[in-house]
Amino acid sequence: MVEVIDARGLSCPEPVLLTLETIKKLGKGEVEILVDTDTSKENVSRAAQSIGWQILKILEEEKEYKITIKKD
Amino acid sequence: MEGLKNFFATKKGIIFVGLVIGVLAPVLQKLGNPPNMGICVACMERDMAGALGFHRAALVQYMRPEIIGFVLGAFLSALAFKEYRPRGGSAPFIRFILGIFAMIGALVFLGCPWRTILRLAGGDGNAIFGLLGLIFGIWVGTRFLKAGYTLGRTQTLASKSVGLAFPLLMFGFLILLLIDSQPEGEPRGMLLFYSIKGPGSQHAPLFISLGVAMLIGVLAQRSRFCTMGAFRDLLLFKQGHLFLGVAAFFLAAWITNMILGQFNPGFEKQPIAHTMQLWNFLGMTLAGLAFTLAGGCPGRQLFMSGEGDTDAAIFASGMIVGAAVAHNFGLASSPAGIGPNGAIATIIGLIVCVIIGLTMRRR
């Protein structure tokens, strides 16, 4: 099952904090993160990549982003 | 446009922005801004509060175009890159209080994080204690964040015009500054208050300040440059992306100061600074904690307010009110030392921020 984090509307650095907490807990797998600013999109992507997770895709819809990350 | 958008999110991008700000700030000083205050968001908002008569400290009254330029530059950048999005509603009154105490802490030290870096780059050793306090305050803030601190979700606001209010207020201030300039040697125009001596009387030419600040507003909006976030991300995630920007800012400012003959190392008789190191430390501890709890340094709050973030606009408004409180009630420091009520205000501020940090939690 894909873990989903809803970080829409949260201030910096909460989207990154929630993402890192979740992926550290999971260790591997697939996670979707919902954010609603470009800043959060960049920060979450950068943080996930920095600890070895891969960005699978980023979907943009109505100024909201769904970031899918994965680690095997 | 897309390439430019991505460039500023890279390491090279944030370093570039830090270098540009680091060169321009000392140049503004050379052109007339107060010493080690080429840019100081807190001091400049304090001068604005003085220009509006919110406080009547005669030495610090000027409608600083740098603050106006930061907001308008970020606003135009957000529009151009389609990032303008009116939002708000995340505990606005708590943010207002955090803004007030952030300013009080900054005025006990005599500078925001931007000026802390610039004071260091100008050789002011007292700023070491301010920097240590800033880092300690941010560290305390990260403990709250780790424990689930949040001010709740912001909402995207239905009306596009809601986010225009703060940029329009700044535009109004600009118009006021242009039509109500300082009569020669007088402390008051038609409406605005001015300083005849002291830091408020020292300023670079208006259009240079405005132009530089608008450029910085664009660059900082693109790159998310944040002097608090730099240390917060290092302490919280061991991520140095934003820190690279601040390191570049310091290095460029230091080199520019050396070239311009503005580097004067020492502790005594540093410009617009005092040597009461405990209060330099604790003032910036308070400011650093308040910035962390509010999610951005005072510059970043201005850039976000330009993007339509009304919560950031409320924090910035809190800082302007905080400046009035600080100067009206003897909380602000001077080169002679802290104000008569500066110590108690700092302690009250720390208590209030700790209560906010402990009680605002994710369920």
Task: Give an account of the 3D structure.
The complex is a heterodimer of chains A (72) and B (363). Chain A is α+β, with helices and mostly antiparallel strands. Chain A is 36% helix and 38% strand. Chain A has 2 helices and 4 strands. In chain A, strands 1-2-4-3 form a 4-stranded mixed sheet, covered by helices on one side. In chain A, helix 1 links the parallel strand 1 (3-6) and strand 2 (29-35). Chain B has one domain (2-359). Chain B is globular and about 55 Å long. In chain B, helix 4 crosses helix 13. The mean pLDDT of chain B is 96. With 363 residues, chain B is an all-alpha fold.
DSSP, total strands of chain B: 2
Mean pLDDT figure of chain B:
96
Largest beta sheet of chain B, briefly?
2 strands, antiparallel
Series of H and E elements of chain B:
HHHHEHHHEHHHHHHHH
Query: Low-confidence segments of chain B, ≥5 residues, pLDDT <50?
Result: none
What is the tally of helical segments of chain B?
15
The structural class of chain B is mainly alpha
Termini separation of chain B (Å)? 41 Å
Order of helices and strands of chain A: EHEHEE
Strand content of chain A: 35-45%
Which chain pair has the greatest contact?
A: A-B, 20 and 27 residues
Mean pLDDT of chain A equals 93
Structural class of chain A: alpha+beta
Name the poorly predicted regions of chain A: none
How would the blueprint of this fold be written?
The complex is a heterodimer of chains A (72) and B (363).
Chain A: E1 3-6, H1 14-26, E2 29-35, H2 38-50, E3 54-61, E4 64-71
Parallel strand pairs in A: 1-2
Antiparallel strand pairs in A: 2-4, 3-4
Helix pairs in contact in A: 1-2
Chain B: H1 2-7, H2 11-30, H3 41-51, H4 65-80, E1 87-88, H5 92-109, H6 113-121, H7 126-146, E2 155-156, H8 165-179, H9 206-223, H10 227-237, H11 241-260, H12 277-294, H13 298-306, H14 310-328, H15 342-359
Antiparallel strand pairs in B: 1-2
